[in-house]
Design a protein that fits this description.
With 367 residues, the chain is of the alpha/beta class. The protein is built from twelve helices and ten strands. 35% of the residues are buried.
Length: 367
């Protein structure tokens, strides 16, 4: 079956998660909450959610055949036209599910890639997203031509489906190589720009998506970076140099937000953008204290910092949106300094600025 993804019908989706045991069911439900926010951010209507508990994923369908049958019945009754799985599906699982359900089937990775593609504004961001999409698509090309292989392929002969598949693979690999070459040139330009900024004190804002990094960045730099109450508003690393009010020139960088289960293709393709973080002298780890999963988000952000090699950079943990959660009481088991602010109402930011001044002065004394 070939599914036409170009139809402009309203996407109504069923979300599906898998818990390996009953103790992890709550964790899976929380993850589906985030998946729902991602779906809504992409303009999709969430009609229902399903969680299955089984020791390990099914090699064929990820979930059990019983749930697949129930999903098919729900789709047939008008309860959706798309199914989104919270974990990565193998090419075979995705193909089998689409055939069994006669509906579009995607996973969290594809959804995040789609959101990134719709939000990319600069040439660099568009190149990075396209590279991630192609690298995700390449191992999944087999399913697109399987019907030709069955019809014409055989022992001792290459069917036209397989031939077309090889042509497609070569074209995708060629495109990937072309994008990597263009991104390498952009990375070289960024490296030159970084060398020019070596004499500046560098502060990078990191954290979970929608934590309020761009709002804080705008206040600190008087910039006008787009802000919105949605996931992944910022995809490009934006930098501004400030000198007013500081003893030396400070460069602030706003960065792409992190999220749980971020596709590794995106982390790899956005590596040059995230290098703004690895070259910083100080990190502002901005956290949304109103989010019920705030502790998990802190852990997730730290894991991404480890992955990109930024775990040892001095960090301030900044709980944002404190005006919306005045009674908020965090876990006190953190080693880095903790600040409580409202970037939207400019509360608590004076203490942050004083910390920047003290650290920048100390930094230049050491060098």
């Amino acid at each position: 079956m070939v599914i036409d993804y170009s139809k402009k019908e309203i996407e109504k989706t069923i979300l599906v998660g898998l818990a390996t045991d009953s103790r992890r069911k709550k964790e899976t439900i929380d993850s589906l909450d985030e998946l729902a926010a991602l779906a809504i951010s992409a303009g999709v209507e969430v009609v229902s959610r399903r969680v299955q508990v089984r020791p390990k994923p099914s090699p064929a369908y990820y979930v059990g055949k019983g749930l697949v049958a129930e999903l098919k019945e729900q789709l047939a009754d008008g309860g959706g036209n798309c199914v989104i799985f919270d974990d990565p599906l193998t090419p075979a699982q995705q193909r089998n599910l689409e055939q069994a359900l006669d509906a579009k089937v995607i996973d969290r990775s594809i959804l995040i890639l789609d959101i990134f593609a719709s939000r990319a504004r600069t040439a660099a961001a568009r190149l990075q997203v396209e590279l991630a999409q192609l690298e995700y698509t390449l191992p999944r090309l087999t399913g697109a031509w399987v019907h030709f292989s069955r019809q014409y392929g055989g022992i001792g002969a290459k069917g036209p489906g397989e031939t077309q598949l090889e042509i497609d693979r070569r074209q995708v690999r060629k495109k990937i190589a072309h994008l990597k070459a263009r991104l390498k040139k952009l990375d070289t330009q960024r490296s030159i720009q970084r060398k020019k900024r070596q004499a500046l004190y560098k502060v990078a804002l990191v954290g979970y998506t929608n934590a309020g990094k761009s709002t804080l960045f705008n206040y600190l730099t008087k910039a006008r970076v787009e802000t919105a109450d949605m996931l992944f508003t910022t995809l490009d690393s934006t930098s501004r140099v400030m000198s007013s009010g500081y003893p030396c020139r400070i460069i602030f960088s706003d960065t792409v937000g992190f999220i749980k289960k971020l596709p590794h293709q995106l982390v790899a393709s956005f590596k040059s953008t995230l290098e703004e973080v690895t070259h910083a002298d100080l990190l502002f780890h901005v956290v949304d204290c109103t989010d019920p999963n705030v502790e998990e988000q802190i852990v997730q952000t730290r894991s991404v910092l480890v992955e990109i090699g930024a775990a040892d950079i001095p960090t301030l943990l900044i709980y944002n949106k404190i005006d919306q959660a005045p009674a908020f009481c965090p876990n006190n088991g953190y080693s880095e300094p903790v600040y409580f602010i409202s970037a939207l109402q400019a509360k608590g930011i004076a203490a942050l600025q004083a910390e920047i001044i003290a650290r920048s002065e100390q930094h230049f004394i050491k060098i």
